[in-house]
Amino acid sequence: MNPGKSCMRDTVYEVVLSSETDSNGWRKAARKACASGIAPGQLVWRVPGQAEALNLIPYASLPEVALERTMRINKALLKEIDTALLHSDPNRFDLAYRLIWRSQAEPKIHQNPADPDVKKLYQLTKNIRRDIHKMHAFVRFRKIGENDGREQFVAWFEPEHHITAAVAPFFRNRFAGMDWLILTPECSIGWDGKNLSYGPGGNKSDVPGEDSIEDDWRSYYANIFNPARVKVQAMKSEMPMKYWRNLPEASLIPGLLKQAETKTARMIDQARDPQTEFPISAAPRSPGRVLPASIADLYHHLEQRADAPSEDYSAKFIRGEGPSHAELLFVGEQPGDQEDLKDRVFVGPAGQMLDRALADANIPRQQAFLTNAVKRFKYIRRGKRRIHQTPSSAEIEYYRWWVEQERRLVNPKLTVALGGSAAQSLLGKKITLSQYRGKIWDQGDNERLLITVHPSYLLRIPDQVGRDIEYQKFVRDLRLAKRACEESNSKTV
Ligand code: URA
To answer: Rounded to an integer, what distance in angstroms lies between the CA atom of residue 188 and that of residue 354?
Structure first.
């Protein structure tokens, strides 16, 4: 590879840039060096303040060349290089030059992510974009006074890379209406309503402590803080702990997290209108048949029917299971793929989640009766997989009479609706789960109902913290169900 005229092969050249962010200086020198045929290994880049290497043979300066002979560089590559040069990695100038040099023979080199130099380049630019995003998000201004009717603010920030000047236009556009100065250890940027200025860096102590705006910030943050949405891992990766110390709201976070669970429970209670009337169950359309005398009789009738509501359903009917006079009756939505294959309710992933929660609530599964609002598996086929489909209102309605018969025959102390489809089946109408969840509803005639989420809902929560919180709430609902049964036992004794 020898893009330009060959220079003396064993001479080592040195370029001294004016600062860590002297990308213009780097560009000029890189063009010159490349045009002169100086290979990457022959070039040393230095910035002021960086220790000079101890070398016996002094470095040479770049030869003067006419720059009209400069080479072609792909624009996209140059753009990535400009971004990478903001990195604090001391080898970035070498890497950038190597890429420019190599691109003379391989103009599309930047399109090969497997190339180690290209891979490194993209790693640096990714770090830079992330650092810029953090600075956009976590700079917090403190008011220091007013001048000519304009409010004046300062902020302290410690970016990881040399990005401060690069973010100045963002802050000018965002905070055009006030005077501000952002101080970092390396440099400062300021805005006076007309011009952006760039100056030397400073210390954290140069920026005053708290101001009244921060109190507003804190109370705003405490108010919008939604514990039901707390995702600690996401918070930490979005807002790395090192930035927390500069944020006025950060001091609140540990306390707010501690309160999260109680606050969540309170939010659920508040969401539930205390005046909310229990929706009176609409009677299911009765197929006008003789009432079955037992669960076995009921399932026998059901099995005889070619009753799949549509062709999206499995031909298999899956019966409920448990003691025929269980105290607790759980109604799910419909059998899933595993249930359909194994001919049993709640044996797939949602069933395992339910088993775990039942165990944590001290409810032996074999003492409860488990069934579903819809008795067959509704799915669409994707290759070899059968993907669950939510039953329609009409399909839930289709089976309602049968669910009512199960409830009449088992005659439980309490029925637990697992999820929206089960609640719809038991009430005859769609409801907002959060409004009715976690409370014992008396439907009269000894019919009591508790509505909670379906265990598959827990499986769909992507982050572990959210899943843990929701799981605890689910177990709390199941414990309430157990307590309600025990209370009604003690009343009857
Ligand atoms: N989901 C349900 O609602 N019921 C089952 O039996 C299995 C999964």
So the answer is: 57
Q: Which of 428, 414, 459, 453 is nearest to 332 (CA)?
A: 453
Mean pLDDT, all residues of the chain:
83
Q: 């793929």: which residue's tokens?
A: 337
Nearest-atom number in ligand 1 for the CA of 455 is: 1
- Structure confidence by residue, pLDDT tens digits, 374-416: 999 999 988 889 999 999 998 899 899 899 999 999 999 999 9
Mean pLDDT of 462-480: 87
Quick one: how far is CA 154 from the chain centroid?
32
Choose among 267, 239, 266: nearest CA to 253.
239
pTM for the complete prediction?
0.48
The closest-lying atom of ligand 1 relative to the alpha carbon of residue 454 is: 3
The residue type of 190 is: G
Q: Determine the pLDDT at residue 271.
A: 45
Q: Tell me the CA–centroid distance for residue 412 and ligand 1, in Å.
A: 19
pLDDT at 345: 98
For the cut 70, the answer to whether the pLDDT of residue 189 exceeds it is yes
Output the six-digit token pair for 221. Answer: 């943050």
How far, in Å, CA of 339 to CA of 277, rounded?
Answer: 36
SS3 187: strand
350 alpha carbon – ligand 1 mean position (Å): 7
Give residues with Cβ within 8 angstroms of 431, minimum separation 6.
279, 420, 423, 424, 451
Distance 335 CA to ligand 1 centre (A): 4
Ligand 1 atom at minimal distance to the Cα of residue 332: 3
The residue-averaged pLDDT of 456-483 equals 89
Residue count of the chain: 493
Q: Taking CB atoms and a 6 Å cutoff, what residues make up the pocket around ligand 1?
A: 332-336, 339, 345-346, 348, 350-351, 372
CA 344 to ligand 1 centroid distance, Å: 9
